[in-house]
Amino acid sequence: MPGPAPRLAALLWALLIASAPATQARASPVGTADGPGDVALAIGVTTTAAAATGLWLRSRYRRPETDPDGTDSGGDP
Predict the structure, then answer these.
(1) Euclidean distance between CA atoms 54 and 40, whole angstroms
(2) Could you read off the pLDDT of 52-73 as tens digits, one per residue?
């Protein structure tokens, strides 16, 4: 059973996409993007995307805990 990780990753991605502003692109400069709020926003968005991607990869490529013949794969023989 894969657990809640795929659903959590999908929820995080949906929240990230839903929170993105839907504004029209402009060619004129609107100011600098190096204020503390902008840096915090960039760090938060990057962290959320990395966490969602990590959870998705973890759920998709999880190794089985036992070998196909039913023996435990960990430990010394």
Answers:
(1) 21
(2) 999 889 888 877 666 666 665 5
Give 6's pLDDT tier (boundaries 50, 70, 90). Answer: confident
Contact 59, 9 (CB under 8 A): yes
**DSSP conformation class of 28:** S
- Cα distances (Å, whole numbers) of residue 27 to 8, 10, 24, 30: 37, 33, 10, 9
What pTM was computed for the model? 0.43
Helix (H, G, I), strand (E, B) or coil at 72: strand
H helices present in 1-77, as ranges:
5-19, 36-60
* DSSP structure class, residue 66: B
CB contact at 8 A, 12 and 53: no
